[in-house]
UniProtKB/TrEMBL annotation:
It comes from Paractinoplanes toevensis. This is Uncharacterized protein. It comes from the Bacteria.
Amino acid sequence: MVQLLGKEQRQHGPLIALRITPGSGWWELDDRARAVAGALQSRPTDKRGLWLGLQRHTVTRRDYLDGIVEQLQQAGALDRLEVVEDALGEYVANGELIAAALMAGYPMRYDDGPNATFGMSRRDVERVRKMRAAA
């Protein structure tokens, strides 16, 4: 998965992981978001924009976020959008953490297996710990 996300980021630029929470009208909201990314399933596979399922989230190009926000706002459903950064403080799966670190631009080294090593500074880690403790 790490190699796949790294490849997608090199090809498409900065990525973001997001999720539209389940509930009434989910398919319509998902289609609105997919349309912004050019990823509607009615398009031929080779013509679709990036819309990659990653556990509970979808990975797409970060520059699509403003358009997705606008579409969900128009539908009165902006509160249904979750972005990985908003998930701090709850369980984050290994793959989701790897995706978030790649999207944040941390340098990565991949050796073998499901894990990756990231160049996060002690200052960054301490800042997150302090934020979580203050919440």
